[in-house]
Design a protein that fits this description.
Low-confidence stretches of chain A: none
CATH class of the largest domain in chain A: Mainly Beta
CATH topology of the largest domain in chain A: Jelly Rolls
Number of domains of chain A: 2
CATH superfamily of the largest domain in chain A: Jelly Rolls
Oligomer: homodimer
Largest sheet of chain A: 4 strands, antiparallel
Radius of gyration of chain A: 18 Å
Distance between the termini of chain A: 37 Å
Shape of chain A: globular
Order of helices and strands of chain A: EHHEEEEEEEHHHEHHEEH
Strand content of chain A: 15-25%
Number of strands of chain A: 11
Helix content of chain A: 40-55%
Structural class of chain A: alpha+beta
Number of helices of chain A: 8
Largest interface: A-B, 47 and 47 residues
Chain lengths: ~250, ~250
DNA sequence: CGTCATATTGACTTTAGTCAATAGAAGTGG
DNA sequence: CCACTTCTATTGACTAAAGTCAATATGACG
């Protein structure tokens, strides 16, 4: 972990505010409060956990740069990725209510995480009801994404699940300005994709090959290109409503 | 649907308050506010939807009696149950932030549902920060349950998933006083259990038989008895931490 | 008593998992 | 720049969990 306390708060919360404003405008005083709420910023390497299962954290984590994941580890060592977080996401807003974390949070790529003390969140609920509701909305979207994943896990084939995630990431990343030419950074390994969907690495590999064969996906290195978003969405049975985005595909 | 406006608010919110107090005491004024927030109470028959996918509800639903489920239906008609709600649960607290419901809510047994206008929830965020945080905590527990289901869907066998759910329901129902002699009402059909886990009815049936054969489960009609909770929990790999209950198994 | 939903059983199929080997890529230190 | 290690991706052969289809039983209820 690397500490970095000198960056301006403004760029830190830019993407979060952009996201929250999909719900309601965030006036200058709330923006200022959020900016000032960041106690520190830390950097982590891929694979590094910055919140551990069982912890009782005193601060919540805001992703500023890079990708992070919420992960549960079963007694037998098998892992399940519960959520993938991108810049602008509060990855454990809920943790401020929980006594013990039921899952950990790890960096998927090198990433920069802003820490907001729970005391500041409490203060928001005391003094800034509008912002409280905006964060509530963010929690609700987070839960909606989780539900969509749940449907995938229960009812969709490996092929559909992976196609669906690629669509979801396209929209989420686009909404924070991280997609260019239908291309975005996507640092998950095939093993991690398997952990997200409860699939074996082998099966993930074969499914990705199928998607590439059908020209729905081009991947080079850790970046992904979606040549035909509409076709991918159709193949995936993807309906973006749950994301609370108004974006067209 | 049947309307019923005459019941005292007090018994309506008893179980909710009991639950919220696991987080923080709920003083009389907050209790009174909640009581008064109930605009009406409705009754529904098994299978009846009281919130539909795509709705923009103006009120949230508190389960007073009976079981309800949050359900997503895929274009091909396949259903996925996202959550099972019991008395004392707010089943769509999050809906007040969402513009469109990404899932519906249906009665699993005959049930009695108290309706709380979203305006009242907004008022809570304006005037009762403590209660706001308690509800936030409730949302967080809800999400934790969803995550645990997600792990099940991804990483547990049918056998473990079903055993796990039986443990979860035992604790949740006990925490609201609905378990007696290790026995509780459990109105889900085998088809509905399948919808919850993404399993076929046939496979659910065979799995239940296995659990009964091993004397981990006794079921008569719509009631379920867990003769040996510890053994079931071991078989299920069940760790109750995520429920935020201090109950011993 | 008949109807409808629910539960059970058997035979066969499919999806995805496991094991094991190989190939590529990225990163490190000399 | 190269040899070396290590992680990641790919392939093949075989297995197992769970699905599908179809028939039958059981139970609740008007």
């Amino acid at each position: 972990m690397t500490l970095n306390k000198t960056l301006p708060g403004r760029t830190m919360i830019k993407r979060l505010v952009r996201k929250l404003e999909r719900f309601e405008p965030v006036p200058p005083n709330e923006r200022a409060f959020l900016k000032a709420a960041i106690a520190r910023v830390a950097e982590y390497d891929p694979g590094e956990y910055f919140v551990n299962e069982g912890d009782s954290p005193a601060e919540s984590c805001l992703v500023v740069e890079g990708f992070a994941a919420r992960i549960k580890t079963l007694p037998n060592g098998v892992r399940q990725i519960m959520a993938i977080h991108i810049p602008g996401d509060f990855c454990d807003l809920h943790s401020f209510a929980l006594k013990r974390m039921d899952h950990g949070i790890a960096a998927l790529s090198r990433c920069k995480i802003a820490k907001v003390p729970h005391a500041k969140l409490t203060e928001i609920t005391e003094r800034l009801p509008r912002l409280t509701r905006a964060l509530w909305w963010d929690l609700a979207i987070d839960a909606a994404i989780l539900r969509e994943w749940m449907v995938g896990a229960g009812r969709r084939s490996a092929y559909h699940q992976i196609a669906h995630l690629l669509c979801e990431m396209l929209l989420r990343l686009r909404s924070v300005g991280l997609v260019e030419d239908n291309t975005y950074a996507f640092p998950l390994t095939q093993a991690e994709l398997g952990d997200a969907f409860g699939l074996s690495t082998v099966h993930v590999n074969r499914t990705l090959q199928a998607l590439r064969r059908e020209h729905l996906l081009i991947s080079k290195g850790r970046a992904v290109t979606i040549p035909n978003a509409k076709a991918l969405a159709t193949a995936a049975g993807f309906d973006p409503t749950y994301l609370g985005l108004s974006d067209v595909l």
